[in-house]
Structure formats: C-alpha cells, structure tokens
Amino acid sequence: MSYKDLHTFIKELNDTGELVRIDAEVSSELEITEITDRVSKAHGPALLFEHVKGSKYPVLMNSMGSFKRMSMGLGVKDFDEIGNLISQYLDMSNYLSIRKLVKSAPRFLRMINIFPRKSKFRGKCQEVIEREVDLSTLPILKCWPEDAGKFVTLPLVFTKDRITKQQNVGMYRLQILDKTSTGMHWHKHKDGSEIYKGYKENDQKMPVSVAIGCDPAIIYASTAPLPKMIDEMMLAGWLRKSRVKLVKCITNDIYVPDNAEFVLEGYVDPKEELVLEGPFGDHTGYYSLADYYPRFHVTCITHRKDAIYPATVVGKPPMEDCYMAKATERIFLPMLKMIIPELVDMNLPLEGVFHNCAIVSIKAKFPGCAYKTMNSIWGMGQMMYTKLIVVVDDTVDVQKLSAVRDAVLSNVNGASDLFIANGPLDALDHSSNQALFGSRLGIDATKKQGRENNSLDNGDVTNSYHILTVRKEKAFHGRDILKEYMASHPDKFIIAVDDGVDTRNLSTVMWKVFNNIDAKRDLVIDKSKVGIDATKKWKEEGLTRDWPNDITMTDEIKHLVDERWSEYGIKNH
C-alpha cells in the first residue's frame, strides 16, 4: 500500500509492531541520537519520542531503518519488486504486438500518477502559519558531540531554476545558525548548488522552501539520483501510485507537498557572505569538516496542527540511510543494465556508505569486459564518486560477501588485475590528498581467459588475507609495516588498520578500507601480493586538509542512556 502522509505511515508501523512509542521525556541534544543509534545497530524498531524537552512536537526516528520498513514505505514487499517493474517498462519486446500492448495497459495507467497536481487552495501543511519565525521551537537534533550545533537532518529542499522555472528537490542538511536562519549545505556537484549559481550570476535572491515530514515515497524520491530535467515528484507519484498534491507557499513561489508536517519558507541571497557550516557527524561515520556555504533565511514556518517532526541520525553503518541506498541500488539497477548490457547484478555494501564501494557481476564476453564495465559505471551520474568497484563473474552472488571474497582471492593477480583511475570524488570523502578529486580503484576479480590457473598458487603466494594493526609513529608507517610483512609472508592480500580497530569485526575493517584509502597513494604491490594501507593519514603523507575524527558518543551520554534505558520501554525489541 501507499501512504497519503507521514501519519498514515506511522499508524501502519504501529499496527504491525514496527514502532515503539517512548513516553519518557528526552533531550534532542545527543540523548535521542544515542538511543536511536543503539536501536539501529541492533536492527530494532522505529521510535516515536512523544515528549521532547523544550518542544511541543513529537520526534520520529528510524522510521525507514530496516529492509522491511523501507519496503513498506515504498509500498512493496521488497525493493526488487520495483526494479522488476521498471525492467518491464524498459523491455522493448513488450511493445511489439497489440496483445502485449494490451497486457501492458496497467503499467501505462500507473504512469498517470507521475504528474504532480497543483492545488489553488491552502494545504494540510499550512493549517498553522507562523510569520514570527523561531526555529528553536522545533525539536531539532544535535546529533553528535563535535557537531557545530543543531541540524535538520531530513529536509526536502525545494528550489526553482531561474530560467526554466522547473523545480528541484534534494536532501541537504541545515545547520541552525540562529532563530531565523540556517546554513544551506549543498555540495558543488548537487543540483541545488547549480541552480544557486544561476541566481548568483544575476544578483537575484533565490526562493527556497524546505518540507519536513512527507510520506516515505516523497522523502525517498528527494534522495534519488535522477537527471536534473526529471522532477523528483514524478518519481514519488509513480512510487506511491497517486499524484503528489502540491500547494503554493505563503511567502514565495515554490510549490511544496500538501502532506508535509512542516514547511520552512524563505530565501538565499547570493550577495551575502557565505557562513561557516559544520563540522557534522556524517553518513561516512566521520565528521565532515567545516566549510563555507550560503545562509538560508527563514521568513515563515507553516505546519499541521498535529505536526510530528521526523529526523534521522547518520554515522558509522549500518544506520537508517543505508536502507535508502539499498533501495536505490535495486530500483536503478535495471537502468544501469540497459546501458551496460554485460551487467548482471550489483551490491552497494552498507560499509561502503553510498559512494565508496560497488560490487558488480558481469557476463564477461570478451577480454577487458571488466574494465569496460568500470569505466561505464564511473561515467554515470553520481556513480562517478564510487571509490572502489569490484567486478566478478555472473556465477558469483554479489549479495554474498563471502563468495565475493573468494573470487577476489582466487582471481586477482596483483597489479595486472587492478585499475586505478583519477576522477571526481564525493565532497564528504576525506581520504584523498585534495578535496573533490582523487583516485578510484577497480578490481577485476573475473576468471581470465587463457589463464590456466586463476588461483595462481605458486608456493610463494596463498589465496589468503591478513589484517595488521599499526600504532602509527611516523609518516608512511602503515606502508612500511605492510612491506615488511609482505616480504616474509605468503598472504595475497594484507590490510593495515590503526591500532584500536577490532580486526575480528570484518564489517568495521571494510568500512575503514572503503573510507580511508586513496588507491594511488595507499596500495603496496609486490608481484601477486597486494597491501592496502587503511590507516589514518598524516599531512606529511600528502594531505592538504585535516583528517576528520571518527564519530563517537560521549561517555556521559552513554552512561545517561544506560541509566534510563528501562524508562524508554525498548527492552523487549
């Protein structure tokens, strides 16, 4: 089923045992984060905090923080249901006869829902209009100890192109600066930033409205990697099987979803100086560093009478945003397969936090097919940020990481099966020597034509891996330790991580690898052996910026939550 608003989704979560209502009064500063993080890591339920200090609004957390709830939010049993339907749209054989066209009629009729409808009347989200703006009345979270302040973490930022008047929506965090303004954290590569550039070049104020708390399909659509010319509300309407109703804002010409819980209306003035925004505990599991971004002036707040404030917490995976990424993986796979015919399946592992790793299987029809696949992936939209692509044969189940591991250990022969390419990186990537640009690694783990023994066990190298811990005392210490180990041990792959990393937890080790390496700088290759330096890097190793801290909670808050845990009523979940 689809949901007309956030309230109906909450009711469904409650009715299916997927929601815990927490009656105890809690703080939006760190306490909600610590509770939610524990529940998320334990694959627990959605949480509705009904009493938050300093605010009259309840806070909803972790509402899409599982495969089941994310699928429920999109109205399906699993994500592949959507991907399979898209495959049918893209299959041209379905349109080659009258009989097949008639059979396709239900799919065509569903397309009617892609067109948003604009209402002439005020919407549900405008039941209350507050022209005297005070953002402190909202239960906005301070998520992590080193965050620069409170952040709106689940905002749908609506903007309008200055020339075409086409609207765009993206999810860009908002740091609260004062009672009437926030930072606007749109990255250089994002559509919002490009639209802003058009207003800046013409010295015009840019209207912006932020919707908070729509139904799950609308929330998801705002994160989807769509081409700029496609309105995200079209995808939302198709997903929810009903057209998105939009209403005009009170103080600007932006249209927002009628079913939003809150709307922040205002503008960005490109003539103003940029403001320092951040740091912020981000979805990479590290703090993103402070940088300068535009100021968003809030001129009006509208909301429902019974408004609920939804938020999310990001950090070391797995967390709620990981399931949005997995939905994207399955929904957009058919389109990737249409462009890359050899592609069979794809896995974006949770430890890769969106852009850091993609594992793909292919039908390797010709020599170099894996490299053709890598370059194709790096050439498509937001996939250009992917730091590591592992390519395996179609006989390998990419959803089983143990099978992928075995393919890599058996089929990779040192430098001959590694491909390093320079290119753009995500703004949140901290490992490259310079911001926004670095090297990406492709690993060809397919069986090679003409190679008699893909495993290449020659008595000197074994198909095994080893993880080293390094107490770093000097620049390039990780590389030095790797070289020493590789000279006297037969393991094919060796990974170096900082001391303090639990090497028994492979999920944590791979998270460090995906986040901390720049391929050109951090690989040590000795014939068939490959060393990977996943330690924290120093300025002396080439960095031109600070290395961010891992996200951790304070002992004080951990102790507080330990003491209060029975009050929350989550113990049986």
**CATH fold-level label of the largest domain:** Pnp Oxidase, Chain A
Number of helices: 16
Helix/strand class: alpha+beta
Work out the helicity level: 25-40%
Q: Measured on Cα atoms, how large is the radius of gyration?
A: 25 Å
Find the CATH superfamily of the largest domain: Electron Transport, Fmn-binding Protein, Chain A
User: How would you describe the oligomerization state of the chains in this entry?
Assistant: single chain
Q: What is the class of the largest domain in the CATH system? A: Mainly Beta
Strand content: 15-25%
Average pLDDT taken over every residue: 93
Number of strands: 29
What is the element layout, followed by pairings?
Layout: H1 6-15, E1 19-22, H2 31-41, E2 46-49, E3 59-61, H3 67-73, H4 79-90, H5 98-103, H6 105-110, E4 117-119, E5 128-130, E6 151-152, E7 155-160, E8 167-170, E9 174-178, E10 181-183, H7 191-201, E11 206-212, H8 216-221, H9 232-240, E12 245-248, E13 255-257, E14 262-268, E15 275-277, E16 280-281, E17 287-288, E18 291-293, E19 295-303, E20 309-310, H10 320-339, E21 343-347, E22 358-362, H11 369-378, E23 388-393, H12 401-411, E24 418-424, E25 437-444, E26 462-470, H13 477-488, E27 491-498, H14 506-516, H15 519-522, E28 523-526, E29 529-533, H16 555-568
Parallel strand pairs: 1-2, 3-20, 4-12, 22-23, 23-25, 26-27, 27-29
Antiparallel strand pairs: 2-3, 5-19, 6-9, 7-8, 7-11, 9-10, 10-19, 11-14, 12-13, 14-19, 15-18, 16-17, 21-22, 24-25, 28-29
Helix pairs in contact: 4-10
